[in-house]
Write a structure and sequence with these properties.
38% of the residues lie in helices and 15% in strands. By secondary structure, the protein is of the alpha/beta class. It has a single domain, classed as Metal-dependent hydrolases (TIM Barrel). The strands form three sheets. It has an eight-stranded parallel β-sheet, sandwiched between helices. β5 and β6 form a beta hairpin. α5 packs parallel to α6. Bound molecules: zinc ion (ZN). The site of zinc ion has 5 residues, from β1.
């Protein structure tokens, strides 16, 4: 009876609403403040440590001093990460030589990745950049190239030279891509952004709840599909170079499209870094995709150096938990776990990376 009364009261309130009176507390909540708490009585699994040893193929120079590097190593030991790729790029970190020196006392925990030098785009300049790449590889231990990044304006992640206007299929940098292949250095590259960031930021936007600021303005630069074409050109034209598309190639909304590229190009791999949350709101599709492409997927974080970040990613990959939130990954929508089989986890966490970084040599 009480329920009926409550429903009737609600109905009668609604019927009396005018536009002016419609403002309820819910109308005042900003999306950025949306922080729901799960009410369901469902399993909550804390994965303290990864089920198998991990090679993290995507991180950056997050530590600002030696103490933080030492603490990061302790955290890696605690959660089960054997070693981590420290990638060079413009938005974080110092010159390549400097961070290699800073991490040197802990180099058993880290592998270094460097960028292309675009500071002189003449054929002679590119030849010098090839020599620099070789020096970074031979003398400073760079195992790969990255993180390169093109969100429409060219490689704006580049260091030390500015790569604006230089897309990955630019014929001028073909010698550099070939040199990376010759040195067996995979190229890790961030192309575009998640698809919803290109769509109008209105009430129909499927990702709006996460962040309005993540919208991509494509005025005067490449849009999503043009970037994908430019990337595919490079992968096709350089079959002896391995490309790692960071962040599922920003294609978690369309796994069949990403799968078609993987089917077509054996030199293409992808990492899951910084997009675990993008894939974990469609857990069944993501699980099916990761099982199908278990030989091409690489583990990556790209999200700092704290234990709870790693553990949330493990929870997504390893458990069957449903409907949990992950403010530590910057997302406001609910995630569910993939419950990946052990043989897939082993490849994703470790074996594929090990193969690329060692057997590929
Ligand atoms: Zn990154």
């Amino acid at each position: 009876m009480l329920v009926v009364l409550a429903a009737m009261t609600l109905a009668s309130c609604n019927s009396q609403k005018t536009n002016e009176e419609s403002a309820s507390p819910a109308d005042q909540i900003r999306l950025v403040d949306f922080a729901p708490v799960v009410v369901n009585n469902i399993p909550v699994t804390k994965v303290e440590r990864a089920k198998f040893p991990i090679i993290d193929m995507h991180a950056h120079d997050y530590a600002s001093n030696e103490e933080e590097i030492a603490q990061w190593c302790k955290t890696m030991d605690q959660v089960g990460v054997l070693n981590t790729a420290i990638m060079h790029c413009s938005w974080i970190g110092r010159p390549f030589e400097e961070y290699v020196a800073a991490y040197a006392p802990y180099k058993d925990h880290f592998r270094f990745w460097c960028c292309f030098d675009y500071s002189d785009m003449s054929p002679e300049g590119i030849e010098k950049a090839c020599q620099l790449l070789e020096r970074y590889h031979n003398e400073l231990g760079a195992v790969g190239v990255g993180e390169l990044g093109d969100k429409g304006e060219g490689d704006t992640y580049a260091r030390p030279g500015d790569g604006t206007g230089i897309h990955i299929d630019d014929p001028r940098i073909k010698p550099l891509i070939a040199k990376a292949g010759e040195l067996k250095m995979p190229i890790s590259i961030h192309i575009a952004e998640p698809y919803w960031m290109y769509l109008p930021m209105d009430e129909t936007n499927d990702g709006l709840v996460n962040a309005v600021a993540w919208h991509v303005d494509t005025t005067n630069c490449y849009g999503y599909n043009k970037l994908m074409t430019s990337f595919e050109n490079a992968v096709r034209e350089n079959p002896n170079t391995i490309f790692i598309a960071c962040h599922y190639l920003n294609m978690t909304h369309d796994f069949p499209r990403l799968g078609a590229l993987l089917d077509k190009y054996p030199n293409l791999y992808f990492d899951i870094s910084a997009r675990v949350a993008e894939s974990a709101h469609t857990p069944r599709a993501a699980r099916e995709f990761l099982i199908k492409y278990q030989d091409r997927v690489l583990f990556g974080t790209d999200n700092g150096m704290y234990a709870d970040m790693y553990q949330t990613i493990f929870r997504v990959l390893e458990t069957n938990d449903e409907h949990f939130y992950c403010p530590e990954l910057g997302y406001h929508w609910a995630l569910s776990g993939f419950n990946l089989p052990d043989e897939v986890l082993k490849k994703l966490y470790h074996d594929n990376a090990e193969r690329i970084l060692t057997e590929y040599k």
